[in-house]
Automatic annotation (TrEMBL):
<feature type="transmembrane region" description="Helical">
    <location>
        <begin position="21"/>
        <end position="43"/>
    </location>
</feature>
<keyword id="KW-0812">Transmembrane</keyword>
<feature type="transmembrane region" description="Helical">
    <location>
        <begin position="82"/>
        <end position="99"/>
    </location>
</feature>
<keyword id="KW-0472">Membrane</keyword>
<dbReference type="InterPro" id="IPR020846">
    <property type="entry name" value="MFS_dom"/>
</dbReference>
<feature type="transmembrane region" description="Helical">
    <location>
        <begin position="55"/>
        <end position="76"/>
    </location>
</feature>
<feature type="domain" description="Major facilitator superfamily (MFS) profile">
    <location>
        <begin position="1"/>
        <end position="163"/>
    </location>
</feature>
<protein>
    <recommendedName>
        <fullName>Major facilitator superfamily (MFS) profile domain-containing protein</fullName>
    </recommendedName>
</protein>
<feature type="transmembrane region" description="Helical">
    <location>
        <begin position="111"/>
        <end position="132"/>
    </location>
</feature>
<keyword id="KW-1133">Transmembrane helix</keyword>
<dbReference type="InterPro" id="IPR036259">
    <property type="entry name" value="MFS_trans_sf"/>
</dbReference>
<feature type="transmembrane region" description="Helical">
    <location>
        <begin position="138"/>
        <end position="158"/>
    </location>
</feature>
């Protein structure tokens, strides 16, 4: 929910930025293209937990820094907002595939669909964050930036799935290494177990016959 709040709040807030609103909307759309490219690179070669936490924390930090910029430096404030949108868009693309890796095969489709449905709550709430501008211009940035940075820190507690086999059952999912546990689980094929048991039984039969 926090991720969707940040993504849609920054997208909807583009019209409130100083300068040409059409150009700002154009920038907001263009900045997502390299973000999706970076998300592919990070998902292919970087640990999942590090990718999610670093981009979320960076996005929240960029949003919070906007409040420290003087009002006359319009270009700089827009730059930091686009950098925040870039970070949030990157993690927005990574988190979908990361979610699929965390859940076992027996629940993967249902779990990803349930998480995607629950995230729609954030997209519904996002416009109300923008409406807080009527009370204070800085309030939406403070709330969105704080929630995003806090979520980036909390995401360090998630399991790591990079370079690990996908879990097939719930028991495999529970064995994922978390923040403190670092030993990866090993999935053993049932067919391999059955063949090993058959070989052992045949060996015992040959020994008894001899």
């Amino acid at each position: 929910n926090t991720l969707t709040i940040a993504y849609y709040a920054l997208s909807l807030n583009t019209a409130n930025l100083h300068g040409n609103p059409f150009f700002n909307c154009f920038l907001s759309a263009v900045v997502e293209m390299p973000a999706y490219g970076l998300s592919w690179v990070m998902f292919r070669w970087c640990p999942r937990r590090l990718s999610v936490s670093s981009t979320l924390f960076a996005g929240g930090l960029f949003i919070l820094i906007i409040q420290l910029i003087p009002a006359h430096l319009v270009v700089l404030s827009i730059t930091f907002e686009m950098m925040g949108k870039f970070s949030v868009s990157t993690v927005f693309a990574v988190v979908y595939a990361y979610t699929a890796e965390l859940y076992p095969t027996v629940l993967r489709n249902t779990a990803v669909g349930a998480c995607s449905t629950a995230s729609r709550i954030g997209s519904i709430i996002a416009p109300y964050f923008i409406y807080l501008r009527t009370y204070s211009v800085s309030l939406p940035y403070i709330l969105v930036g704080s929630l995003t940075a806090l979520t980036g820190l909390l995401s360090l507690l998630l399991p790591e799935s990079f370079g690990m086999p996908l879990p097939d059952t719930i028991s495999h999912m529970q064995s994922f290494p978390g923040c403190c546990q670092k030993r990866p689980y090993v999935i053993t094929d049932n067919k391999e177990q059955e063949s090993a048991a058959e070989e052992m039984s045949l060996a015992r039969q040959s020994v008894t016959q001899n």
